[in-house]
Known about the structure:
Rossmann fold, alpha/beta
Amino acid sequence: MAELNIEEARFNMVEQQVRPWEVLNHNILDLMMDVPREAFVPEAYQHLAFADIHVPLAHAQVMMAPKQEGRVLQTLTLKNTDRVLEIGTGSGYLTALLGRLVNHVDSVDIYDTFTKAAEAALKAHNIANVSLNTGDAVSGWNKEVQYDAIVLTGSLPVFNTQFQEQLTIGGRLFVIVGEPPIMEARLITRVSEQEWIEDSVFETSIPALVGAPLPRRFVL
Length: 220
């Protein structure tokens, strides 16, 4: 793909996909123009780097669509002092965007190949405020630590309150809950030690986190 075509495709991604999906925060739109999404997309799918789809990754995983990534960032109302936990590093693109917006990101993925690839890509683009980890975080990570924001890049068929309990007062959790074909993106804000406010943000559908519990099924 020629250089001019890449920049045109990036512009179209932001203006024709992300902005029309009610992502109007100029800092986020500028950031998505600046951070090269193609650098985090597998080589076999470079032609789909800016497409309005879930780009396939290894291990039957996918990248969120660009408009979903934009909405995640806008919904979390991130500050440059925030400490963020990301469950599901995946390609590392959302990790990079988070790293450019906040003070520090702890990101974890169950697949070591994703962790290593993201480490190389982040280093290549001088994003040094991210700690990458490999492990099973479907039920939480760094449980003794509280975060200003937590984002799950895979869905939860059944909601787990463990993540909201790791928020600071005023902290925000972005999570997608449910099963195909329609899932609910939720923003959960901690307002006190024992109180959280939950808002429905939009409907979508993405694959579940690896190992996420399924709802109990009735068997006749």
